Amino acid sequence: METEKGAVGKPVEKEITEPFLMLGDTENMQQHLSAADTQDLETKGYKNEQQFAANAKELCDHFFRGKVHRQRFFGWNHGFIFAFPSSASKLDVLIAKDAELIYKAADKVFLLNKDKVILKTPEEVILTHSGRSFVVKRRCCT
What is the pLDDT of residue 50? Predict the structure, then answer.
């Protein structure tokens, strides 16, 4: 995140090796996708299509389990929503729509909307708007 005093935070980069959920207009994505065959599934550690399907169903069940997810995302057809397993047995969620971006992980939330940015981590909350920044450090008790 850029502030008037320089960059704050660290970039998030993840390599996804497990199935992930993508909701949105898949017609635009079709040119970037290809069908997986049995060998592709075996390369990723699955015994067969049934094991992959069971894993994908578990991911969908996890995502749609909560009432909040169903209300917030059901019927939403603009932009994209990606949900993928995190190391904490939870889901990280990335939502992209036009110039808006939301990333929610177990330990951080990042929101970008035009000229407003919010970054919330366990250590601090950073807000930027129209080139001005506001940083709140959280006190830690040990």
Answer: 92
Q: What global pTM score does this model have? A: 0.71
Rg of the chain (C-alpha set): 18
Share the mean pLDDT of the chain.
78
Classify residue 86 by its DSSP letter: -
Residue 67 has pLDDT above 50, yes or no: no
Closest-CA residue to 52 (of 65, 68, 40): 40
Does the CA dihedral 22-95-64-72 come out positive or negative?
negative
- Contacts of 84 by beta carbon, 8 Å cutoff, 6+ apart: 14, 16, 18, 20, 21, 91, 92, 94
- pLDDT attached to residue 136: 84
Query: Are the beta carbons of 28 and 34 closer than 8 angstroms?
Result: no
User: In whole angstroms, what is the distance from residue 53 CA to residue 75 CA?
Assistant: 23
Strand order of the β-sheet with 80-85 is 21-24, 80-85, 91-97, 100-104, 109-113, 116-120, 124-129, 132-137
Phi, psi of 72 (to 5 degrees): -75, -35
Backbone angles phi and psi of 9, in degrees to 5: 90, 180
- From the CB of residue 35, how many other CB atoms can be counted at a distance below 10 Å? 5
